[in-house]
Specification:
The chain is mostly helical and 358 residues long. It is built from twelve helices and eleven strands. Among the domains are: 167 residues, no CATH class; 54 residues, no CATH class. Helix content is 50%, strand content 8%. The strands form five sheets. Strands 1-8-9 form a three-stranded antiparallel β-sheet, with no helix packed on it. A two-stranded antiparallel sheet has the order 2-3. Strands 4-5 form a two-stranded antiparallel sheet. It starts with a helix and ends in a 7-residue tail after the last strand. It is found in: Membrane.
């Protein structure tokens, strides 16, 4: 009982500590609002400022409090499969069992050694692009990374929110820097009255400009990832398929890759509401070499219908229309003529990622 109690206390302390970066960002944002609205108080800019501020806070909130999606129950081992796996001591025999289970699932990626990706902690076969997060202690669909600044895993369910958070926070900092610049210059030329506001103006400019630099680099990097249809983990280590490693295995061309994250409807792109394509357990692939052991038509659905999705078996439906268009639209969607050929040949082959514990 004592060791268990100490572990619970330790976990409780860790959960509190994980919120410190989020609290730090919240305090910085609250101070910036006070300094800009109440101290600087440039009336003509306040309308634009509040529009950017609201979108920034909304996207940040969504990134923090949207729960990462976990694999559907079809990927979990049944009780009988668990017992069968535990009775086998040899690794090859265990892999035979896992391969038998995986034949009915849209799983196309492997470990570096070519084995089925299996999570011992969650007791499930990992869907493509799914990884186990050591902080959340769960398998996360299309895991990108665990971000301490949002105290959450960034994955399939909130990656769009994370991108919008980066975009609006960068826009927020750039707007403050641009509108505060003239007063910053006056500060050094003694053109400002000697009040408390002048120090807020000084530090507001410094903090906004410094955050702009770091946010610009991070946002640019993730824009590149979106265009290549890779996660941060996949950029570090490329996904392994049956035919070998392929860093572009999930890339369908820049436009299609973008739509996979932000959705088909342009009106939803700048808004922090879910509009990504698919269900997070399977993904279209540009690969020509199909995996003969796997089903060729995984399902596609919206996470908003996750409850209904949990009751289905793979494959039970064709790709939904929006996801199917990612594979059947014209070659103009592709990055090159070669990519266009791959799209035509490997139309409905979903792909998956690498073995990476984060």
């Amino acid at each position: 009982m004592a060791p268990s109690g100490s572990r619970s206390i330790k976990r409780g302390c860790q959960r509190v500590l994980y919120w410190i970066p989020v609290l730090f960002i919240a305090l910085i944002v609250a101070w910036s609002y006070y300094a800009y609205v109440l101290q600087l108080c440039i009336v003509v800019y306040l309308l634009v400022y509040h529009a950017i501020f609201i979108m920034f806070v909304w996207a940040y909130w969504q990134t923090i409090f949207t729960k990462p999606m976990n694999p559907l129950k079809e990927f979990h081992l049944s009780y009988s499969d668990k017992e069968l796996l535990e009775r086998e001591d040899r690794g090859e025999s265990q892999q035979e069992i896992l391969r038998r289970i995986a034949k009915d699932l849209p799983i196309y990626t492997r470990t570096n050694s070519g084995a089925i990706r299996f999570c011992d902690r969650c007791q499930l076969l990992k869907p493509d692009r799914c990884h186990h997060c050591s902080v959340c202690d769960k398998c996360i669909l299309k895991m990108d990374h665990h971000c301490p600044w949002v105290n959450n895993c960034v994955g399939f369910s909130n990656y769009k929110y994370f991108m919008l958070f980066l975009a609006y926070s960068l826009l927020y900092c750039l707007f403050i820097t641009a509108t505060d610049l003239q007063y910053f210059i006056k500060f050094w030329t003694n053109g400002l009255p000697d009040t408390q506001a002048k120090f807020h103006i000084l530090f507001l400019f410094f903090s906004a400009s410094m955050f702009s630099v770091s946010l610009a680099s991070l946002f640019t990097y993730h824009c590149w990832l979106v265009c290549k249809n890779r996660s941060t983990l996949e950029a570090v280590r490329a996904p392994v398929f049956r035919h070998g490693t392929d860093k572009n295995g999930f890339s369908l061309g820049v436009s299609k890759n973008f739509r996979q994250v932000f959705g088909d409807e342009v009106k939803y792109w700048p808004v922090p509401i879910f509009s990504s394509l698919g269900e997070g357990c399977s993904f279209p692939s540009c690969l020509v070499n199909l995996d003969p052991e796997q089903p060729s038509s995984p399902t596609g659905s919206n996470p908003a219908n996750k409850g209904a999705a949990e009751g289905r078996q793979f494959p039970s439906k064709p790709l939904r229309e929006s996801q199917s268009r990612l594979l059947t639209s014209t070659p103009s969607w592709t990055e090159s003529d070669n990519a266009a050929d791959k799209d035509k040949k490997g139309a409905s082959n979903p792909g998956m990622t690498i073995e990476n514990e984060a």
